[in-house]
Amino acid sequence: MSGRVLDEKSQGVPGATVLIEGTTLGSSTNADGTYLIQNVPAGPQTLVTSFVGYNAKRQPVTVTAGQTTALPDIALAENTTLLSEAVVVGYGTQRRQDVTGSIATISEKQFVQGQVTNPSS
C-alpha cells in the first residue's frame, strides 16, 4: 500500500505516521510525504494517518492480494488547539502559564531563519 500525505497547502508532510488499524503494520512518510506499507493483509482495512498539530484521519481501504494498492492523497487539516505552547528555559521546559519572569515568543519562521552552526567544528 502506498500513497502521499499532504497538508492544506498540498505540500507533503514529512514524518507523518500511517498505520493499519488493529495491526503492527505502518510507516512514516519521507521528505515529500510519501509512504509505503508492505505485507498488508488482503481485504478491508482502516488506514489511520496522524501528525503532531494535525487532526488524525481514518480512511477505509480495500487491499487486493498480490498487488500494491496505490491510494489517493491524504489531506490532513491543521489543528493548532492540539498543541499547548511550551516554554524552553535554561534548566528545563515548563508550560507558559507556570513561568514567572520575562517571556518572548519566537515564530517558526524566526526560529529556522539564519545559518546553522556546529560548535564542535
UniProtKB/TrEMBL annotation:
Gene3D superfamilies: Carboxypeptidase-like, regulatory domain. GO terms for molecular function: carboxypeptidase activity. SUPFAM superfamilies: Carboxypeptidase regulatory domain-like. Keywords: Carboxypeptidase, Hydrolase, Protease. It comes from the Bacteria. This is Carboxypeptidase-like regulatory domain-containing protein.
